[in-house]
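> Could you send the CHC2-type zinc finger protein prediction when you get a chance?

Sure thing. Input:
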Amino acid sequence: MAYDSDYRLADAKAKPIKDVSDLLGISGLKRAGREWTGPCPGIGCGGRDRFSLNAAKNLFNCRICGAKGDQVHLVMFVRGVEFKAALDWLCGPKAELTPAERAEMDRRAEENRARQARDAAKYRADAIAAAREIWLASVPAEDTPVRDYLALRGIPRERYPALPNCLRFHPACRYMVKGQTGWREVHCGPAMIASIQAADGKGTAVHRTWIDLSQPKGKALITDPLTGEVLKSKKTLGAKKGGAIRLSGPWARSETMVMGEGIETTLSALAAGVPAGAVYWCGIDLGNISGARIMGQGKKYAGIPDMTDAEAFVPPEWVRDLILIQDGDSEPKSTHAKLLSGARRAMARRPGLSARIVPVPEGQDLNDVLMGASDA
Ligand SMILES: [Zn+2]
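Output:
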């Protein structure tokens, strides 16, 4: 039976995925915005935070075993049943329908699709507006504590004489977390704000790094007073997918782009100054550089891009040579797979472009590594 030929599918897809997850007895999930993360319910998978539900898109995903899909796939995955049995479990047995009933089902399905599309569009617009507000409340980064922060991260003024417009400083940026009872503030302090620009150059999100210049690496130590959990000092807000933080360029004749996961890594490459004339963009996170991948048995580390992902990052047309930096301090196999996916997507979308992955082992000099960059 084709996946979409059962009328109950529309009912199944109208159910919020968190409700389906609760019905299935999946436990240990923690909420962060519209995402829920926790251990994977897959047999023999588990872990701590590899599994996630996306309440906005009604999808689930395990970044380790690769299981993913919608509400029905989740039932199939957890209960180990086929499509029809999953629908029986979720929606009850299939009834014989009259043409009128069938038409009514179709109408409801269409209504539901339209409502979900409207919700998603509104959520996106609200997030972009909130990001813009933070951007407008911040000031150009030059001669602010952002300078001192970058110096602490090994990027001195002489190597990066003019900070780009995409970096700003916010003197009192609020760090909000979403719990069971709504949003609450856990920290408020100075932050480096970076604009995330979509392919068309529009600012659609902000990246924030909370800073504390009394710390050795300049990053604020933020702890949730309620749970005692140590939080990351970086967060993004808005619609970041497919975007980048444009730390330098493009210059008139540039053809080479260097992209790292973090702002600091990318800036270290920039400060090293090789290759000459390159443009340095930060890819925000590995998932954004990778885009969606083809997953499944034996494909976890294969790095095959899912080319149906229309929102994934693709370098601009002028890029002929793409260098992706592989950080030495992240898990090498999955990091490499994600970078490989990004590299292959770029080559497929931009004929004539060549892409390389340059691993930077911990403690090694980025300059030397980039000078001897070899093809992936
Ligand atoms: Zn899993």
